[in-house]
Amino acid sequence: MHEQKSPTILSFLPSFIILSAIGWGGLIFLLTKTLPNIGPRWLFFFFSVFAVTGTVMPIIILLNRRFPSKPPASQFVIIREAILVGIYFPILAWLQLSRVLTPILALLLAIGVSLIEWLLRLREKSRWEP
Asked: Does residue 16 lie within any of the structural domains?
């Protein structure tokens, strides 16, 4: 039987380059050319999700290849994990804007996101395939 492996970085190269370019380019434009009104503020969160997701994707791919699981992480799993990390940091920025963010809250949110991913991976492991 043929053994599955986690996808390589080369299979995700176009996606994380495009996501990073759109995200970081949009953030640079927003920070240098706009005023912090309501529209650019929401664009900040939008572009920061793209920027963090694109930046973190190669790291997540390397972590999934370094610490393999059974079943191996599919492309969908890697994208999902990158998006979860990409959403986590703009949430922290949003909480910091209203001066609500504390280190304990950031830690609890990280534990919550990790728990969600762990439960999703546990569900994938428990699926019976003949």
From this structure: yes
